[in-house]
Amino acid sequence: MSSALIGIVAHIGKAGARRVAAALSEEFAHRGVQSLLEAKTAEAMNLPGGVPLAELGERCEMLVALGGDGTILRIVRDLGDVIPHIFGINLGSLGFLTCLSSADAMLAVGSIVARDYTLSARQLLQLQLMRDGKEIASQRALNDVVLSRGAVSRMINIEARVNGRFLTSYHADGLIVATPTGSTAYTLAAGGPILDPDSGAFIITPICPHVLTNRPIIVDDEAEVEILLGPDQHEISLNVDGSELAKVHSGDRIVIRKSAQMLQLAMLPGVDFFEVLRQKLKWSGSAL
Known about the structure:
By secondary structure, the protein is of the alpha/beta class. Helices cover 20% and strands 39% of the residues.
């Protein structure tokens, strides 16, 4: 990997982030591989030469993300048109998107330099917020798009359509549209199913629906999901991967479809989604 560049992006608020970033940079250099620090990471380490995240994505073959699942979500959101491979190292407990703890960070260096890793293709969502016939916001998501009542004390009325066909009207606290990657996030807590990353599907999950027969539904990931707000809806929160994108109200249209981009998530050989799932959810088989 002598010609490849590796980018290092750290959640600087996490304990040990600076130390692990410095150790990784030094180890890559020792193995003859050049690494670049993301601008905010370099600034936190009082080092010159940091590179803005979007530029880092264009210049590097792989980004090493130090933090947790939220760090990877932020990176995917803030990257430009180019999304390189991402290798996640958790600075807390094991996450669904990270395959190593900080104590094993040097294993990541060896794996990356030797190209001894597997890639898990993760589908992304692309959201458009339309108002008065014009696009006022656009964002991609790795996990989910969530429409919620926020600080409003009453339920909201939401109409959902799939490929232009009416699905149903929800009277609920909100609605989640999730990727298979996001099936282990908010939608899981809301009663949705867990999907294999290769499922080729999206999940539409109501949040605390008033009608108990309103259940999560799985649709093909080639489908276009459209969400319309009912009358007299104001200051409803539209969130993408846990961050608020905008406040929406009656008359707004939210259009969600599969992104043309994908994330290639790097993992150590022998570590797959089902192993992570068993560890994270503490599945150990029958108790009998």
